[in-house]
Each structure stands twice: as structure tokens, then as C-alpha cells.
Amino acid sequence: MIPDSFVRRIRETHDRKFSTAVEVKDEQTSQICSFRTAENNPVNHNADHLARLYTVPIDTQQQIFQYGGLPKVFMKQVTTFQECSILVRQPAIEIMTYLNHTDYTRPVNKYVLCIL
């Protein structure tokens, strides 16, 4: 037989209602912002845009694929996923930085991209 005082203590402790206030955030928007760059012009990409996807506009896609700038296999992937995105990487940012600091009145600079 269970003592009546024990049952009363359980009822008192378990009848309490606890609540917390939680701010609901839009997870989809935060996830999109975390891996896509908002910069529409690739010339303006910098270290802040590293490891983020740049979505290529449709008119630029047509020009790139028309003149053979990207492989046909990539074109098939673009068709499958219905978007053309390119990862912004450190070597590209480095070359763009060099080009921005280049004095075009001087003889031509030559850049060698080494992948280690």
C-alpha cells in the first residue's frame, strides 16, 4: 500500500506546468544565407565570399556554354539542377586581387596558378 502523503507529493510536483518562450527563426533563409553569396557581380567577390556559391545569371550561362567555356558534363548538371552555381575559391580571389592592383600602363604581368 502506498502512503497517501507520497501520492500527494507526486501530484503536487507533476501537476506544475512549465513553459519557455522561444523565438522562431526562419531556418530556410538562414541556411540559404550561409552558403550562397549575395554579391551578383563576380568582380566584387573578396575574402568574405570564400566557400560560398555564386549563382551565374541565365544570360551569362548561355554565353559560357555557347563558346565552350565550361565542360558539357557541367551543362548536364546545370540542366538537372536547374541552376548554375560556382564555388568562390581562394585562388580566384587571389588572382582578382592581383588584377585589381595591376598597373595596366606597364608591361603585361603573367600569373601562374599553382594548385598544391
Automatic annotation (TrEMBL):
Keyword Cell membrane on entry: no
InterPro entries: Ribosomal_mS29
Keywords, in A-Z order: Mitochondrion, Ribonucleoprotein, Ribosomal protein, Transit peptide
GO molecular function: structural constituent of ribosome
Any one Gene Ontology cellular component term annotated for this protein: mitochondrial small ribosomal subunit
Localization per record: Mitochondrion
Claim: Mitochondrion is one of the keywords in the record: yes
Main location group: mitochondrion
Family stated for the protein in its record: Belongs to the mitochondrion-specific ribosomal protein mS29 family.
Name listed for the protein in its UniProt record: Small ribosomal subunit protein mS29
UniProt source species: Lasius platythorax
The organism's taxonomic lineage, starting at the top: Eukaryota, Metazoa, Ecdysozoa, Arthropoda, Hexapoda
